Amino acid sequence: GKDATLGVLLDPKGVPVLKTLEEIWQNNKRGISCIPVGTYTCVPYTSAKYKDVWHLIDVRDRKLILIHNGNTNKDTEGCILVGKAFGMLNGLHAVLQSKLALKWLQDKIGKKTFILTIN
């Protein structure tokens, strides 16, 4: 869409498990672009704002790309949002039930490192 990049998170067997939302492609500019196609290591990360999420390591020309909850591109700041479904909020593409989706991911992965491939 013109306001977001929508995706589907697949488990290791290729089964769709969650929806994702990122910014649209803006030449990999920090804070306003989705991340480039590639394979990334995701490590557990916690801060005052984001508890028990994941940090994508070695994203070219970018720092502190996280997988966290949120609904629209207003919440991404260049990160990846997870949700249970797609929808619209205030005229913007959105992922819905994002807190539930993040909790589901936390329960499935725990505080483990994993590999994420973006196609």
Keywords for this entry:
1 helix; 10% helix; globular; single chain; 119 residues; mainly beta; 7-stranded mixed sheet; two-stranded antiparallel ribbon
Give the strand line-up of the largest sheet. 1-2-6-5-4-3-9
**Count of extended strands:** 9
Report how far apart the termini are: 17 Å
Q: List the helices and strands in order.
A: EEEEEEEEHE
Helix content: 10-25%
Tertiary shape = globular
> What number is the mean pLDDT?
96
Strand content: 35-45%
Given the structure, what is the number of helices? 1
- Main sheet, how many strands, which sense, barrel? 7 strands, mixed
Radius of gyration: 13 Å
Q: Show unreliable segments.
A: none
The secondary-structure class comes to mainly beta
Q: What secondary-structure arrangement, pairings included, does this model have?
A:
Layout (H helix, E strand, L loop, with lengths): L4 E6 L5 E7 L15 E8 L7 E5 L7 E4 L11 E4 L1 E5 L2 E5 L1 H12 L4 E5 L1
Parallel strand pairs: 5-6
Antiparallel strand pairs: 1-2, 2-6, 3-4, 3-9, 4-5, 7-8
Polypeptide structure, described:
- The protein has 119 residues and is mainly beta.
- It is 10% helix and 41% strand.
- The strands form 2 sheets. A 7-stranded mixed beta sheet has the order 1-2-6-5-4-3-9.
- Strand 3 and strand 4 form a beta hairpin.
Structure summarized in a few sentences:
With 119 residues, the protein is mainly β.
